[in-house]
């Protein structure tokens, strides 16, 4: 193989346009225009409109929960839940998650306690969570990663035995089930992201699910859009309303969920077959669930076996217009302000540190065709075979 | 006049449908559908899309500021500004404002210091602001009310002489000018609301304006949507992005601003003429501005002269399908959590207390026709003339 077969060295990129990670499933023009014409005709654009009502009812059915409370995004959903649950002091969460999980705590005046994750599943290490609970800890924020789950049943038992509260950042887990129970039913509340990159998409948006009537009433008043309920006393509003435009997209996306999940699962299987044959790339399958939305394709790069670092591989793919991501990077304990405010975590989270240098997220979702996966895996295979060609000279 | 001429006593309401306060100016179907078709064709729904870019550039021109940073709503805008300015301790603001002004402080870990307002202008009392500044106060949040302004120049001088920061809640003041300088140019930053009830409307939405490059860069990173700038180091994100759907509506609304302001001004003049002739109703004209958006029609009810309490008048109007509002009510110092956490303000804000029992907001904006104002003022006039008829028996 020659250098001239890689865009990294100047060849024509394998893809004409950048192929992003992220689900990006959108409706057809017919459905989209009908939905937006309806909003125009009603001249009802926000604050508890008919589409929001319909969406929340359908989500409640889909998730099998008593309350689905749609919000402007998952970050605000997490802030609202911490507030509505009356948390104080510290909250345990993994450092291997999206920054907003931790930042939601900061806006609510809470301090994060970072736990490590399991090196194989990437889910939070429950033994470590147990060891971290002390009298300052008021809650655990479980994070369900990669279309999998962090063992919510074991976390529930732990939380109740220790007398702390439990809620979930389930931004990655919409439509997943744990022993046939939909994610959304665990802890006191769960928070989903409906960002365009997620399988359930409201462009921007999110949803809080709970089976707790009192908590739901407080959340609706914090939002503040009460649905069919009356306002209750709360200490502060968040103004995290979901508009009718967001609800319209989410309703169509919910209708499409079965088809989109199936498409993801098929793409996932194609990756699975191909990646098996490439040394040094380990596919991280969604764990802890009986059904997954298959919305993430995550691998670990073993630099020694693959012959290239994760970061160099990302550059090689980028040159081919495959926009793979190092996700998550860095671990939250190494980001501002935690790196200086909470330096105790810098040498305590070896698995997080290791995954942050090894994880790569590959494109899956609406924009990815079966033949694209063949092409992406071919690039990966060739990069591995020709690894020496890419390494900086002083390493040779 | 007989009881039978009032819907309050069972007559047919004067208006077939409820006539709300709130601007509610929306574009025509042709413009609306073209804008949304564009979003669909681009499949670019959020996070620094072309419509957001265009909107921010046009707002910068309109407001004559260096940076217009659009956000999901004004509440989050205020939170973000407090964070980006690095405030700590206490912030002075009037108790006669919308709850979100104070709640934005709470999310940012700040304590409100409530000042009173002027009984004639309803704007904050600058002498009292000066007296309230102590070493714990890091900033003043000026609130520009009713399409008027709270003397931003005097506040700027005060803030700089006392060494505290200054920013503005200008939710009511989009498009207003102070001595020909657009509101948006005062203090370190100003925050506008683009809610559907405001003259500049994004359904939900808002905007932060500032002439401070560093502050703007931090705000874009907190949002986080960077525009053409690079991200900078910040302590937490807020995920307060404006979607393309919001930006599309706001762009059309900005184009329509001159026509909508003119319509408001005409409606305002009609009210002005009629209200003059009704005893006990005092129109509160926008003060402190050289140009107003005329987006609020606010009166003070003098119960003795009018013969009825403000609250009873609101019920009489409501029966006629005129949805007048007691705005603001109650004063923030009498709301949870401030009433118990900060009881020192309960007997210190007599003007706020008085206005909260006397103010009434009447419909003005897209849904109000000239003949509606005649009809509304006719109800007001007849209610005043027949006041005794409405008063509970034990008062007679």
The number of helical segments of chain A is 14
Q: Kindly state the mean pLDDT of chain A as a whole number?
A: 96
Largest interface, Cβ cutoff 8 Å: A-B, 44 and 43 residues
Range of strand content of chain A: 5-15%
According to CATH, what is the topology of the largest domain in chain A?
A: Aspartate Aminotransferase, domain 2
Summarize the structure in words:
2 copies of one chain form a homodimer. Chain A has 396 residues and is of the alpha/beta class. Chain A folds into 2 domains: 3-23 and 256-395, Aspartate Aminotransferase, domain 1, CATH 3.90.1150.10; 29-252, Type I PLP-dependent aspartate aminotransferase-like (Major domain) (Aspartate Aminotransferase, domain 2, 3-Layer(aba) Sandwich). Helix content of chain A is 39%, strand content 14%. Chain A is built from 14 helices and 14 strands. The first copy, chain A, has a 7-stranded mixed β-sheet with strand order 2-10-9-6-5-3-4, sandwiched between helices. A 3-stranded antiparallel β-sheet of chain A has the order 11-12-14. In chain A, helix 4 (99-107) links the parallel strand 3 (90-94) and strand 4. In chain A, helix 2 (50-63) runs parallel beside helix 8 (244-275) and helix 3 packs across helix 4. Chain A is globular and about 70 Å long. Chain A starts with 18 loop residues before the first strand and ends in a 6-residue tail after the last helix. The mean pLDDT of chain A is 96.
């Amino acid at each position: 193989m020659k250098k001239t077969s890689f865009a990294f060295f100047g060849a024509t990129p394998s893809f004409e346009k950048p192929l992003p990670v992220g689900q990006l499933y959108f409706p057809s023009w017919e459905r989209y225009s009908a939905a937006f014409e309806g909003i125009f005709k009603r001249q009802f654009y926000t604050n508890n409109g008919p589409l929001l009502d319909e969406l929340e009812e359908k989500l409640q059915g889909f998730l099998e929960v008593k309350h689905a409370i749609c919000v402007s995004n998952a970050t605000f959903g997490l802030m609202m839940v911490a507030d509505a649950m009356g948390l104080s002091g510290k909250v345990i969460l993994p450092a291997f998650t999206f920054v907003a999980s931790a930042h939601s705590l900061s806006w609510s005046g809470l301090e994060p306690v970072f736990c490590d994750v399991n090196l194989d599943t990437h889910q939070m290490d429950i033994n470590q969570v147990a060891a971290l609970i002390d009298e300052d800890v008021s809650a655990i924020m479980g994070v369900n990663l990669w279309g999998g789950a962090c063992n919510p049943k074991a976390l529930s038992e732990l939380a109740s035995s220790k007398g702390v509260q439990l809620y979930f950042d389930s931004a990655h887990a919409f439509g997943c089930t744990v022993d046939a129970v939909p994610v959304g039913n665990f802890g006191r509340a769960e928070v989903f992201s409906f960002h365009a990159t997620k399988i359930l998409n409201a462009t921007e948006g999110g949803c809080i699910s709970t089976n707790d009537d009192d908590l739901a009433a407080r959340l609706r008043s914090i939002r503040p859009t009460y649905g069919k309920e009356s306002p209750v006393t709360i200490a502060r509003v968040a103004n995290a309303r979901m508009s009718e435009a967001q609800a319209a997209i989410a309703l169509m996306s919910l209708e499409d969920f079965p088809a989109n999940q199936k498409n993801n699962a098929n793409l996932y299987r194609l990756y699975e077959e191909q990646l098996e044959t490439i040394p040094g790339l380990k596919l991280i399958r969604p764990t802890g669930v009986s059904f997954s939305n298959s919305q993430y394709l995550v691998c670990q790069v073993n630099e020694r076996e693959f012959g290239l670092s994760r970061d160099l591989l990302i550059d090689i793919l980028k040159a081919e217009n495959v926009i793979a991501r190092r996700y998550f990077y860095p671990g939250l304990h190494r980001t501002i302000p935690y790196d200086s405010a909470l330096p105790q975590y810098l040498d305590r989270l070896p698995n997080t540190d290791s995954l942050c240098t090894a994880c790569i997220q590959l494109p899956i979702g609406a924009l990815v065709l079966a033949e694209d996966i063949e092409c992406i895996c071919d690039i990966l295979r060739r990069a591995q075979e020709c690894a020496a060609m890419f390494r900086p000279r002083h390493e040779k």
